[in-house]
Amino acid sequence: MAYWLVILGKLLALILLLSSFLQQQHHFANGEPQVPCFFIFGDSVSDNGNNNNLATTAKSNYQPYGIDFPKGATGRFTNGRNLLDFIAEQLGFLEDSIPPYANASVGSVEKVLKGVNYASGAAGILYESGRTRGDRIPMDKQLINHQNTVSRIINKLGNKNATQLLNKCIYSVAIGSNDYINNYFLPQFYRTSRIYTPSHYAEILLRKLSQQLRSLHMLKARKVVVYGLGLLGCIPYEVRLYGANVSGCVDKINEAVMLFDNGLKSLVSDLNNNLTNATFIFINSTGISLTSSPGSITISNAACCQVSEASAPQCILSGKTCSNRTQYAFWDEAHPSETAYSTTAARAYRALLRTDSYPFDIQRLAQL
Ligand SMILES: *[C@@H]1O[C@H](CO)[C@@H](O)[C@H](O)[C@H]1NC(C)=O
Ligand SMILES: *[C@@H]1O[C@H](CO)[C@@H](O)[C@H](O)[C@H]1NC(C)=O
Ligand SMILES: *[C@@H]1O[C@H](CO)[C@@H](O)[C@H](O)[C@H]1NC(C)=O
Ligand SMILES: *[C@@H]1O[C@H](CO)[C@@H](O)[C@H](O)[C@H]1NC(C)=O
Ligand SMILES: *[C@@H]1O[C@H](CO)[C@@H](O)[C@H](O)[C@H]1NC(C)=O
Ligand SMILES: *[C@@H]1O[C@H](CO)[C@@H](O)[C@H](O)[C@H]1NC(C)=O
Ligand SMILES: *[C@@H]1O[C@H](CO)[C@@H](O)[C@H](O)[C@H]1NC(C)=O
Fold first, then answer.
1. Which residue of 107, 162, 300, 344 is 20 to 30 Å from 145, comparing CA positions?
2. What global pTM score does this model have?
């Protein structure tokens, strides 16, 4: 009797296993993304290869970058997937399916129908930010590139169908870090910090970004995710330059960035009130990092890869890496590790706290 019960139990377990396997297969076979396309604007947090052929020191298409990425060093500024890779995955896009503009600007229009990534390391809201690193694609230029993509889609689908498609896509804008790191807080090269108070500078950035987001809206974007800046004063490279306060971070940088973040949230609110049929959401990157449980991360004040005075903030070519990458918040001296990106992305997509996003999270934006 007991024997039969055991067999029955095993059979049941097998059936359950099989059916959940089949369900998963089903899920993947019909794994349509939640929105038809995903367009990405920004800097090194989002870049997936646009700087590879530019004359700049802001490049990452060499080892050990990509050590945990299936295709190796692609031009992503981290060890594995970056923030937007995780968001794209959450939205149901197959891994690595949003091409860099550098690869998708010519050739078949089919390549751009699911979205394009325009992001460029060292790029800022202001044209001149990041200039000391060499060439980069500033936000205004990224929008011009997008205008080219939109024209190609209109040529292919006709205005009506193209508009329908473009209205449904999600647009990601994560930019502004270089306007601080590679401009305001680089006084040996830029005069901005001598001319403007932090609050006046934040206003200038937000006024410019407001125009840029309106241009994106004119290019038919209706669902836009805007990321707040993280705790830039806690970046090991900034601590190296300025020295740490008791917080372990450069307080004046975090304070300046907070003015921008608060203003950005208000800007999102204004745009939602002023632009018809458009939804902008704000992701509170700083709030998410301040309230996330450390998980596997035990080291937040040092880079995992080897960095030299000359290579800083980036890894040295073919340098050593830490023995356990999941324990590090930072991959190099400026960029989060894949582990840190995955935490932020999870809460940007599905908010854990009410303060994580405003007025709601990416999951809800996708459903509109
Ligand atoms: C982009 O193009 C370069 C050069 O042709 C190629 O090496 C790289 O793999 C391409 N990247 C992607 C993501 O297609
Ligand atoms: C636009 O979409 C409709 C409906 O899906 C289709 O019948 C039509 O052929 C499309 N037009 C173009 C120019 O592709
Ligand atoms: C942070 O440190 C700097 C330099 O050591 C110092 O001048 C500044 O007063 C400190 N700021 C705060 C808020 O403690
Ligand atoms: C939205 O409209 C209000 C009132 O017309 C105006 O004061 C504000 O500057 C506008 N905001 C944006 C971001 O356009
Ligand atoms: C807003 O969306 C509705 C429904 O899709 C549409 O009928 C209306 O024309 C849109 N309004 C504007 C100003 O685009
Ligand atoms: C971000 O979140 C923190 C707490 O998680 C909150 O104190 C802060 O006000 C939020 N910032 C913005 C701009 O919403
Ligand atoms: C790396 O660290 C994590 C978290 O502390 C731990 O779970 C994991 O086993 C470690 N991996 C190795 C290879 O030591």
1. 344
2. 0.90
